Amino acid sequence: EISCSLVGSEMCIRDRLLSLTREKGSLSAAYKSMGMAASKAWKILNRAEADLGVKLVERKSGGKQGGGSHLTPEGEDILNRYENFQKEVAEAVKRSFIKNFGNSGES
Questions:
Q1: Tens digit of each residue's pLDDT (9 = 90 or more) over 3-38
Q2: Which of 5, 78, 93, 101 is 20 to 30 A from 66, alpha carbon to alpha carbon?
Q3: 2 φ, ψ to 5°?
Q4: What is the DSSP string of 29-83?
Q5: pTM above 0.85, yes or no
């Protein structure tokens, strides 16, 4: 997995928050599993949506049927592109490492 320092820790946190929201079907469950305060999660999500100009998460308030959250089509697209970016960077780093240090890390 790529180091957050390569792409910015805020982007890594945002990616993880979106990924867990998709997985758990709940923004609340996502931020709780990250040990994050609700206010921080909402701040990250609201800022991301403002920066990107799209709604990333569709929220459904609780009630008898319970609440939940799911990624919007735009949120899915952005998360998928970010995950592809992460894979491509990891592959490029591995290739460069092997080129410069060999398979075992020895020069």
A1: 454 445 667 788 899 999 999 999 999 999 999 999
A2: 78
A3: -70, 145
A4: HHHHHTT--HHHHHHHHHHHHHHHTS--EEEE--STT--EEEE-HHHHHHHHHHH
A5: no
